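Researcher: Please generate the 3D structure of the following complex. Treat every line as part of one assembly.
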Amino acid sequence: MKKRVIINISILILGVGLYAQEPVKRPVRKNNFSTQVIAGLLEGGEGSALQLQTINGWHYEKWFAGLGTGLDYYMFRSVPLFISVNRYLDPGSNRFLIQADVGMNIPWISREITRFNNLVSDDFKPGLYWNGGIGFSAGGKKNNLVITMGYSYKHTKEIQQKQVFCINPPCPPSVEEYRYYLRRFSLRVGWQFMSRY
Amino acid sequence: MLVCIFMLSSCIKDKLTKTYTIFEPVYRDKATVLGEIKSNPARSIQNPGKIYKYGNFIFLNEVNKGVHVIDNSNPSNPLIKAFISIPGNVDIAVKGNILYADLYTDLVVINISDPLQANLVKLVPSIFPERQYGNGFNPDTTKVIVDWIQKEVTVRISAFDNGGLCTNCSVLQSSGGSGAAASPTIGIGGSMARFALVNDYLYAVNRANLQVLNTNNPANPVHTATRFIGWNIETIYPFKQKLFIGSSTGMFIFNINNPALPVNEGAFTHARACDPVVADDNFAYVTLRAGNFCQGTNNQLDIINVQNLPSVSLVKTYNMTNPFGLAKDGNLLFICDGKDGLKVYDSGNVLNLQLRKHIKGMETFDVIAANSILLLVAKDGLYQYSYSNPDNIHLLSKITVNR
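Model: Done. Output below.
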């Protein structure tokens, strides 16, 4: 298994490297406001899912920091709300970057209360969201294509109250707590709009 | 990159856990348990179940534990005098000096000529076969489950395996108090009851059947018949020569002109819900409750015309919040509406019930109305109200639950 992971990561790095072979020099960005609109694929043990994000923030030299949100459809729909930090590895227009996001995962889901599941109430609680990855940014002065690949995690707690057979009230509901620790690889493709601030 | 993503995804796994409560049974030797069925020192009420009123005494079920004996000579100051330990008990009925109670699958007969010196007279086995514990707990005939130890358990589960497991199922509860009746030697029960005493017969419903026991000799009840009714039977209410039986899908009316062999005389089908029922000469009053094991989506009071049996017809439906037991005395109709408290209606005109009093601030379950005293079981205690003046229904006393 370890061997397979190493081989896969090598292929990935090689792939990104090949894509990035013709660097175009561009002045270092300073204090640029930027908006990223991102679509991505999440791939994990539960299969594939779509993610959509927007990140808004400022560039300062080799750094970018912003606030992000979006939609994450892996296993269940949720809204991540996070701080995103990018570190660019070289000053050119086409450059590698390291990305880290951390924040909250806010579930946007409701389970149907039916006669078959005996649910009295169902409550999803927010949990941790984080994402880490490497990527490549390519483009001109105002707009860039940003491709990143990484590892993403979201957590949620669900509390179900169920009624079990009981005709002799008071009938306290049975409480079940579910915790979801969801780990996925993420491939994101975004378009970055920048304006001087 | 896409290929890499797909290849790598098999290396990572999601983790899903489920935390739930399990109950481990505590067994005791059956001979010891039967030996302890007597009046023990009074104890506080923790989980009140069904109620039964007999003379100056109130018998209040402590769910799955036994029966509190409450001296109610002064309704303004009821006193808990004793506790009769009966594991698995949820239903009670009293005739003369005899208390009938369920002990899981069995019926126990207890002499209460002096309620403070109660003692076991007889055990009738296997009257309630559905009360046999499942879920892997199958005590042999020499053992009885007397308690449960609660434990939190966390297990890993697969994705979406989060809808079907049934925790707490180990506590299978069924029966409770008893139905109203006219004989002076018979007590009065609430509408949630699964026992009903009529003259010389004790009728008890289980999940599917009506059990008939001859109590001509109260201390020596004899099981005489079992009548299949249908599934998910919940409550029984006697009125004159009729038994009104509530199930999760409807109400059945049995004629007991021949008390040893009740005959099904009519039925009213409704949407799936739990439905205690009370009745008078002309109408049956059925509360439908949703949002629990009873399933369904209806929370309402149905008034059903039962004057021309076997033909029955719905007269009117009134919306409720989450109704449980109900009681009727004269034109006053008392409805336990769960978290919405107690509602008192004037039912003189069934087409236009008039709300006379709405007592909020408690979660109500069952009620007995007799002799101008209302006995009310709520989540937080046993209440007594005077309704001698319907315009001035007021609290007489409360025994608070001590959880």
